[in-house]
Amino acid sequence: MGPAELFPTAREAVFTWKLQELAGVVVRPGRRLAEGQVVDLWLNPVWPASPRRLRGRDLLVTVGSCVVSEVIDEADRAGFTYRTLPGHLENGEETFLVSTDAEGRLVASITADSVSAHPLLKAAGPISTASQTMMAKRYISGLTKLLDRHVADSARTDT
């Protein structure tokens, strides 16, 4: 993802739900995450465009609620795991982690262990699995763009 010097920026994106926001996921409450915190998730179906408004309301798809079950905050690793709660479209957990490796590079990983909980998603079979892969790519893409902007902004202020 880039040099290890970008770790603080990536860490902050993970701990403030920016990673989700950049992928078109709205998290409420959007405050800094903490173990035991319960959040509600909505998906912007027209990402990367802003959700369109209809009669004063954002067009967002309800995904469900999750609880932050683990927070990792170490010198070279930062991230969290959240577990879905009843009513979520999926049943399982997802982990978001940024770290630095021995070669001085920033690494990001997103892992999910879940099954479809909604009957329509169960019927969709492989399409549901493909959507999880697509979301992981959206998270990484958003973080990459954020880090690229950070590097560009730093270069402008250094000149």
From TrEMBL:
GO molecular function, a single term: metalloaminopeptidase activity
A Pfam family of this chain: DUF1990
Superkingdom of the source species: Bacteria
Ranges in coiled-coil conformation: none
Domain Cytosol aminopeptidase: 99-106
Cited InterPro entries: DUF1990, Peptidase_M17_C
PROSITE patterns tied to this protein: CYTOSOL_AP
Gene Ontology BP terms: proteolysis
Protein name per Swiss-Prot or TrEMBL: Cytosol aminopeptidase domain-containing protein
Natural source organism: Brevibacterium linens
